[in-house]
Structures are given as C-alpha cells and as structure tokens.
Amino acid sequence: MATDLDSYIPLVRQHVSRDYHLMYRQPNKALKHPYLTPGSSAYANVLWDWDSWLSNVALRQILAEVNDPAEVEKARPFERGCIQNYLEPHGPPGWVPIVIEPHGAWPAEKSMAENMHKPCLAQHAAFLVQQDGGDATWLREKMFPLQSFLNMYRNHYRHACGLYFWQTDCAIGVDNDPCTFGRPERSSGSIYLNCLMYRELLALVYLLQRVGLDEVAGQYQKDADDLRAAIQEHCWDPWLGFFYSVDFNLKPVPTFTKPELHYGQPRDWPCLIQRVGVWSGFLAMWAGIATPEQAQRMVREHLLDERTFSAPFGVRTLSKMEKMYNLRASGNPSSWLGPIWGVANYLTFRGLVRYGFNEQARELAEKTVRLFGRDLEKHGALHEYYQPENGEPILNPGFQNWNYLVLNMIRWLEGQPAVTEF
Prior knowledge:
By secondary structure, this protein is mostly helical. The chain has helices spanning 3-19, 49-66, 69-86, 121-131, 143-156, 191-210, 214-234, 283-286, 292-303, 342-354, 358-379, 406-413; strands spanning 24-25, 35-36, 47-48, 99-101, 104-106, 188-189, 236-237, 242-243, 246-247, 272-273, 310-311, 314-315, 340-341, 385-386, 393-395. The chain has one domain (3-254, 269-413): Glycosyltransferase. A three-stranded antiparallel beta sheet has the order 3-4-5. Strands 6-9-10 form a three-stranded antiparallel beta sheet. The longest helix is centred in the last third of the chain and has 22 residues, at 358-379.
C-alpha cells in the first residue's frame, strides 16, 4: 500500500471512531423510536431513507472494529428504530415517507402521486437481521406493513413493461439525475430505482422466510425474477454496453377500434432507452443483475474511461462527456452532475468486488481513502461531495453518513472480512 495511504488510513479510523456516536438520536415527537441521523448541521435531527440504511452498514463496521458487545447493544435500539419509525402509520396503508422530522413526515401530501421512501427499507431490516444471526423476532409484527410498502410500489409505481418509475423528480436520492430531473411526472424508469427495487424484493423474500412465511416469499421472488428480466430487456444497451434509465413519456398506442394517425403500424415498444451516462448504471453490478459479460463491458468501456467516469478521486456521477456535466455547488437539489460522492464510489466498488474485478476495486477503494484522508488532513472534516480532478470539497462540511463506508473499503483493502449490506 502506498505511503500516503499508510498515513491516511489511521487518520480516517481516528475520525470515524471518535465521531460515530453523533449519529444517535433519541425519540422526539413524530419520531417515536431512537434513530440514526446522517450527521452535520444540515441533517441534524432528521431520519432519511437510504441515508439511514447505508449509515447503519458503516456503523456496523465501526462497531466490529470497536469489538465491544456493549457498544452493539447500545446501538441496536437506534438501528431498529430507523425501521420502526418508518413503519408507524403515516398515511394510507403502504405509504412510507422519505423523511421524518420531529414535527412530522415528509412529503406531507401522503399521496400515491408523490414519491415515497426509496426501496431500501426491507434491505435495511434484512441487514440488521443478518447481523444479529438471523433473529427477526423484533420485526415479526411489522411484516404486514413492510409487505404493504412493497405492494404500494408494485401497484402504483410500476409500468406495464415491468419496470418501476418515479412519480415526480422530487427527493429521488440522486437529485438532479438528468434522466428524471425536470422531466414529466411518471415518465422516468430510473435504473437507480429499479436496481434498488430488485434488491428490495430479495430482501423481503429473506425476511418472510425468516418468520416462516415461505409461501408468501415465493410470490415476491417471482416479482424479483420478473423485474430482473425487465431490466435486462429494457435497460441494457448492447450497442454501448451499459445499463440506462428509460423514458415512459410516449403517446398512447392507437388502436383499430378507434382509428387514429399511425394506427396501421403503431409502436410496439413500451419505452425508450435514455443513453445518458449516469453512474447508477453500475448499480446493475452492485445488485447482481448484470451478466459477467455485461459487467466486463461496463468496466472496460465505461468505468475505466477517463473521458467519461474515471477520475483521480473516484467515479464521476455523470459522464464528463455529457452536455449536462457541471461541478457547481448546489444544495437544493444536491448536485449529481459529475461531482464525486462517497456513496457512488462505495456502491460501484461493491459491484466490482461482486464480479471479481479485484484490481479495479482496489484502485477505487484507494482513491476513496485518499479523497477522505486529504479532506481530514486539510480541513479537519468530511464533506458531502467533491471535485473529481483535485478532490477538493464542494459542499456541507461535517457530513458523516455513508462517507463512513470508507472504513468498510479499508477492511477489504487489508484483506480482512468487511461488513456488507444485505
């Protein structure tokens, strides 16, 4: 390992072990259970959906290194409380908010016409069950609302072709992804959303099996298999060798019973592929959807290309060749138009490990350690996202959250077992 990594690794470890307790929050009004917060002043007392999940994955790696059973016991109510807070009634059955603040849940409309919690709630729960040796007893009474959550997606956020779509461009996690941002409602078959949903369905299958509901689990396994097939059919582009989002904003198909223009040969495709180079195409590797041959092309033709995604400090969140590429600071929406995000580096890294690209995984992990090590050395804090070329922070000092997943990458670099998400 390079000399600078030898100094950055202990610096990162020292920072993480000192500050991880700052994620813990006690019950507060609408938040009836203890919970984990992403950290920093911008996210001080709120429970966020995919943030709490991935922060928890990082927390378990921290606790593994602390190696104190009492610390695990202390953390457990905060971890489980993230799930329990979301599964409290907040609206119609199955509707789960994106964010819960002490004064209430958001979005306040509680409507099927709004985006809701990203499909990572079952994944978060399955992760905790796995970490605790398969014990799902604490979750048994919450299995119905958890199924209702997935059913809400299935019944109201799914296109006829089998892919899932965002209702709007609001709070999608990757805020200004051009495939969704500023586009018509219900038109974005986001590859990010669909990869998360595939893993979410598999996580629910696991949880149902843990509580003895194997027959019900089989129904969700079929949903997962069908979704994987739909992603392969509609999102994989054999021309450019990458997974893309798709566009559902098409006119209705004319029929013979109601003759209209072009009814003699109407379109027979349900969506159009959006050939916009977004980092979330690599989530098809993280999720295990890509074939080995597809993964080979994605790595060779996209991940390693300095003209597109490859940067000195990680994976650009938007290809540098896209017209929309932009590194200006933005907080509402947060910028995913090219800056380096720790979570994008980590999830891409996990996909590389899954498919056996160990050399490329090592390079990306080392870039991430340097990114955060330099930030701590120079500024004494981590930030939300960074300049791709020089690693300088762009916004939000003190951001903890999924940045702490760098510790999971360090463990892998050291050849030691690392905590991984479900």
